[in-house]
């Protein structure tokens, strides 16, 4: 290797490390270990349909107010997102949907992710409402193609 390339290589490697760590952190399930088997076994009782997607959309932007943090387009960049650490999930990112079962996603929406601003919505939303929101949220990744 020519010595002149060395600084470039250092920059590339140091940029790659934090991105990889963030990716690993995101991939890890938010369901506590002792609830994981139970959460993974959960499956949606709802058929896939445009009506359910519409219902999920109304809840996402209405009663659930999910858009405040996750953004109207599901990009994780809602009006209050900048103040939050960790950041709200970006639903447009395909990797997220690949690394979770729908049961784990349901469990976190219902019970929350401990230590984050993602509180559980079990008191406000019925199970069916949560499943319909998941059907809507999944569309954010489909619309934006593989990332
Ligand atoms: C006050 C801000 C806020 C609101 C409102 C909010 N979320 Fe979140 N959400 C977060 C944050 C922050 C995370 C990331 C938590 C983490 O990294 O563990 C998150 C993570 C998630 C995840 C990913 C869980 C996982 O397994 O990684 C899902 C799904 C989710 N939210 C759905 C919803 C839905 C559905 C609503 C509305 C009913 C909602 N959120 C409302 C802040 C919010």
Polypeptide structure, described:
The structure is a single chain. The chain has 147 residues and is an all-alpha fold. The chain has one domain: Cytochrome c-like domain (Cytochrome Bc1 Complex, Chain D, domain 2). The chain contains seven helices and no strands. Helix 3 packs across helix 7 and helix 6 packs across helix 7. The chain is globular, with a radius of gyration of 18 Å. 22% of the residues are buried. The mean pLDDT is 89. The site of heme C (HEC) has 22 residues, from helix 4 and helix 6.
Summarize the structure in short.
By secondary structure, this protein is mainly alpha-helical. It is built from seven helices and no strands.
Described by its quaternary structure, the protein is single chain
Query: What percent strand?
Result: under 5%
Please summarize the sheet with the most strands.
none
Order of helices and strands: HHHHHHH
Q: Helix tally? A: 7
Stretches with pLDDT under 50, minimum 5 residues: none
Helix content: 40-55%
Shape annotation: globular
Kindly provide the name of the CATH class: Mainly Alpha
Number of domains: 1
Structural class: mainly alpha
Radius of gyration: 18 Å
Walk me through the topology.
Elements: H1 6-27, H2 36-40, H3 50-61, H4 67-70, H5 94-98, H6 102-111, H7 127-144
Helix pairs in contact: 3-7, 6-7
The structure holds heme C (HEC).
Heme C is lined by residues 30, 64-66, 68-70, 84, 86, 88-89, 100, 104-105, 108-109, 113, 116-118, 121, 133.
């Amino acid at each position: 290797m020519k010595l002149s390339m060395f600084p470039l290589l250092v920059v590339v490697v140091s940029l790659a490390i934090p991105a990889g760590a963030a990716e690993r952190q995101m991939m890890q399930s938010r369901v506590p270990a002792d609830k994981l088997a139970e959460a993974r076994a959960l499956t949606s009782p709802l058929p896939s349909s445009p009506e359910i997607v519409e219902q999920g959309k109304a809840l996402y932007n209405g009663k659930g107010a999910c858009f405040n943090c996750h953004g109207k387009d599901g990009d994780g960049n809602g009006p209050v997102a900048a103040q939050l650490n960790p950041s709200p999930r970006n639903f447009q990112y395909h990797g997220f949907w690949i690394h979770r079962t729908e049961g784990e996603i349901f469990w976190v929406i219902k019970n929350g992710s401990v230590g984050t601003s993602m509180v559980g919505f079990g008191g406000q939303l019925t199970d069916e409402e949560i499943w319909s929101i998941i059907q809507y949220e999944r569309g954010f990744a489909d619309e934006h193609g593989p990332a």
